[in-house]
């Protein structure tokens, strides 16, 4: 092996001086024969033994140095590779995001119930047997479409009665159109004569005789009463003097009182007879007037107005017959609005009464969301507030507005009922469905919003770190004032402007002015960053 240069030997200085005094040349190309020791000349061993030891030691040291240099040269590339990351890791690895603005809403979440604005139970107007079902559960139908057909057997009695009324009305019309017959006129005249005779009897007949008889009775009773009174007056002095007994005198007084009572009764009877006679006269005069009018009507004939009225009655009776005949036929139950048919729980052949529910028809294109709002939010609750229906992940599914606020409070839950109207043209929601909804109390436009993970807390202070610099990036501590906080997002009222570079990850060990390395958004914070 050949070597062009050796390093300085670590031997002692005296060995070095001794080597310099030796004139023996040192070959750079080693020959294996130079290591052989001659033994034929024992006298030369003492002179040359130290030099040979020195040469062997020197050669061993040179081989070790050369081997070390070779090993170092083979390890240098790997060491350089690991050195570079260590140099790069001298800054803190962070992630940044540009500060932006967005619309921020202050909301509260509630669980409400959807209710169709138009929904009706389908009921037949008559009772009868189902003969045909024309819809299926869940089918969309239009207003006026037939839902079912039925036939009623109990309307036959009404039809019979209606036909009898029609016959009676026609007979009356025929009678009026024919006019009065001579026999009817003669009968009318006889009735009038009879009425007049009864009136004359009331004025001067038996009733008057009864009155005269009552007057005579009054005169007779009055005479008896006067006689009884005179006898009492005469015997009163005799009773005082004791000429007659007290019993006799009391009997006279009793006769006088009885006579007075009979007189009063006779007067009342006369007065009643006189009243009855006058009432009977008035009644019989009215009968005479009525018979006179009837006779004149018979003699003059039927008026055209009466005939027209009778014709109208006939037409009305005929229409009633036709209406009932239609009801006897198969009758259709029609849809009162456009909507989706609910559960159809009837079968052909079922007998239904008037008012029985056949199915339910619901118009799901517009829904109302019933929301129980806590009483403490009463001041914030207003007509027109936006309401958002959301799914379990908070994704907005539909947007509506408050359309009704109850004027009363639920006594059990102490909540106020509010209703929000939603369009449901795509049929995403159902009547009676429970949903999650957010009431948007107020909205802020172009608010500065950042992740809460970027905000650091120190006592009453709130601050973030922003990235500054061009070639060499450093972290700057920036105090901020927080506003509305929603989940992992926070509104910044003061301290940040849109466009600034906000450090959102790796802030745990940061300090103001510290060097930073920016990581890619999807990289691990523990991996190598880029200055």
How is this structure best described in words?
- The protein has 531 residues and is of the alpha+beta class.
- Among the domains are: 13-88; 92-104 and 446-518, conserved putative lor/sdh protein from methanococcus maripaludis s2 fold; 180-301; 362-438, Beta Barrel (Elongation Factor Tu (Ef-tu), domain 3).
- It is 40% helix and 28% strand.
- It has 7 helices and 20 strands.
- The chain has helices at 13-21, 45-88, 156-178, 182-204, 206-241, 246-300, 304-328, and strands at 92-98, 101-122, 128-133, 140-141, 146-151, 331-334, 339-341, 351-352, 359-374, 386-390, 396-409, 415-423, 434-451, 456-458, 461-468, 474-479, 481-486, 489-494, 501-505, 516-518.
- It has a 6-stranded antiparallel β-barrel with strand order 2-9-12-11-10-13. Strands 6-5-3-8 form a 4-stranded antiparallel sheet. The chain has a 3-stranded mixed sheet with strand order 19-1-20, with no helix packed on it.
- Helix 4 (182-204) packs parallel to helix 5.
- It is elongated and about 210 Å long.
- It starts with 12 loop residues before the first helix and ends in a 13-residue tail after the last strand.
Helices and strands, with pairings:
Elements: H1 13-21, H2 45-88, E1 92-98, E2 101-122, E3 128-133, E4 140-141, E5 146-151, H3 156-178, H4 182-204, H5 206-241, H6 246-300, H7 304-328, E6 331-334, E7 339-341, E8 351-352, E9 359-374, E10 386-390, E11 396-409, E12 415-423, E13 434-451, E14 456-458, E15 461-468, E16 474-479, E17 481-486, E18 489-494, E19 501-505, E20 516-518
Parallel strand pairs: 1-20
Antiparallel strand pairs: 1-19, 2-9, 2-13, 3-5, 3-8, 4-7, 5-6, 7-9, 9-12, 10-11, 10-13, 11-12, 13-18, 14-15, 15-16, 17-18
């Amino acid at each position: 092996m050949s070597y062009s240069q050796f390093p300085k030997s670590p031997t002692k200085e005296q060995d070095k001086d001794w080597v310099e005094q030796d004139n023996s040349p040192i070959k750079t190309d080693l020959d294996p024969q130079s290591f052989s020791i001659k033994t034929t000349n024992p006298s030369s061993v003492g002179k040359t033994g130290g030099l040979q030891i020195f040469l062997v030691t020197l050669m061993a040291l040179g081989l070790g140095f050369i081997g070390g240099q070779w090993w170092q040269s083979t390890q240098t590339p790997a060491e350089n590779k690991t050195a570079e990351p260590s140099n790069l890791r001298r800054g803190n690895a962070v992630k940044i995001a540009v500060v932006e603005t967005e619309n921020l809403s202050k909301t509260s979440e509630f669980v409400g119930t959807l209710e169709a604005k138009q929904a009706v139970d389908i009921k037949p107007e008559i009772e009868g047997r189902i003969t045909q079902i024309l819809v299926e559960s869940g089918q969309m139908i239009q207003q006026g479409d037939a839902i079912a057909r039925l036939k009623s057997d109990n309307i036959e009695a009404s039809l019979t009665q209606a036909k009898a009324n029609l016959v009676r009305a026609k007979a009356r019309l025929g009678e009026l159109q024919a006019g009065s017959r001579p026999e009817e006129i003669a009968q009318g005249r006889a009735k009038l004569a009879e009425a007049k005779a009864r009136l004359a009897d009331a004025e001067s007949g038996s009733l008057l005789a009864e009155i005269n008889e009552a007057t005579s009775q009054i005169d007779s009773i009055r005479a008896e009463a006067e006689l009884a009174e005179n006898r009492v007056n005469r015997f009163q002095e005799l009773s005082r003097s004791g000429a007659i007994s007290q019993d006799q005198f009391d009997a006279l007084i009793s006769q006088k009182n009885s006579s007075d009572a009979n007189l009063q009764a006779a007067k009342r009877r006369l007065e009643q007879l006189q009243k009855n006679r006058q009432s009977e006269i008035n009644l019989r005069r009215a009968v005479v007037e009525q018979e006179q009018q009837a006779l004149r009507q018979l003699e003059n004939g039927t008026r055209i107005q009466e005939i027209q009225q009778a014709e109208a009655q006939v037409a009305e009776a005929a229409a009633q017959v036709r209406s009932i005949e239609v009801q006897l036929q198969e009758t259709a139950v029609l849809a009162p609005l456009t909507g989706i048919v609910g559960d159809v729980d009837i079968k052909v052949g079922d007998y239904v009464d008037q008012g029985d529910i056949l199915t339910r028809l619901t118009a799901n294109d517009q829904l109302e969301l019933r929301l129980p709002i806590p009483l403490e939010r009463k001041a914030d609750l207003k007509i027109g507030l936006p309401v958002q229906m959301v799914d379990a992940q908070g994704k907005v599914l539909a947007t509506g507005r408050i359309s009704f606020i109850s004027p009363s409070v639920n006594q059990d839950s102490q909540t106020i009922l509010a209703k929000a109207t939603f369009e449901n043209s795509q049929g995403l929601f159902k009547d009676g469905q429970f949903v999650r909804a957010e009431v948007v109390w107020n909205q802020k436009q172009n608010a500065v919003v950042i992740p809460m993970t970027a905000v650091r807390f120190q006592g009453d202070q709130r601050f973030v770190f922003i990235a500054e610099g061009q070639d060499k990036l450093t972290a700057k501590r920036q105090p901020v004032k927080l506003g509305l906080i929603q989940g992992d997002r926070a509104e910044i009222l003061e301290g940040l402007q849109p466009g600034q570079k906000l450090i959102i990850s790796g802030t745990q060990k940061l300090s103001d002015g510290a060097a930073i390395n920016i990581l890619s958004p999807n990289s691990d914070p523990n991996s190598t960053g880029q200055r």
